[in-house]
Amino acid sequence: MSGLLLLEQTLNGVQLGVLLFLMASGLTLVLGIMNVINLAHGSLFMLGAYFVVTFHVWTGSYALSVVLAVAGCFLLGLVLEFLLIRRLYKLDHLYQVLCTFGVILILNESTRWIWGTQPLRSSIPPWLVGVVEIIPGAPYPIYRLVIIGLGLVVALSLYLLIGHTRLGMMIRAGAKRPDRSDANRFVPDTQAGDAVTSLSLRELLVPACESAA
Hints:
The chain is mostly helical. 70% of the residues lie in helices and 4% in strands.
C-alpha cells in the first residue's frame, strides 16, 4: 500500500469516526445525565438525513433544508419526550431498552412507508464541491474535511461546556448525585424542561452535521 493511499484511507477512517462520535455523544449525554437508554437515537439520526434530502428536493436550498430538518427533528424529539421518554425515567433500564427498541421498529417501518426502500441521493452543496491537495499528489474531498473539522469543533465545544462552565458543573453534579442536585434547582430526571432540552437539542445537532455528507 502506497503512502498516499494510506493517508486517504486514514482520513476516511477519521471522517467515519467523527460521524460516529457525533451520534454517540448525544446518546452518551442522555444516558449519563438522565440515566435513560434511548436506542431510538440512531433512528432519529436517520430521519434527520431523510428530512434534509426531502426538504432540499422541495425547496432547492441546502441552507433552508437544514433549518427545516432541524425543526422537524426538534418537534419529533418533543413528541417522543412528552409521550414516551419522560415515563421511563424511574423505570428499570430493561423497560427503556424494550420501549425505545419498539420506537426503532415504528420509525424504520414509517421510513419505508414514506420514502420507500431505495436509497435517496442528493448532490453535494456547491460550496463543498472540489478537492484539496493535503500534500502534493493527495487530493481529498472538501466536504469530508468539513465533516472532520465540524466534529472536532463539536468535541472541543462539549469538552469546554461540560468541564469548564457553570452549566457543565451542574450537569456533572446531576449525573453523579441526582439525589442532591435539587438543592441547585437542577433535577434532570424530574424537570420536564431540562429533559426536553437534553433530549431534543441532541437530536437537532446531529442531523445538521449529517447533512454535510
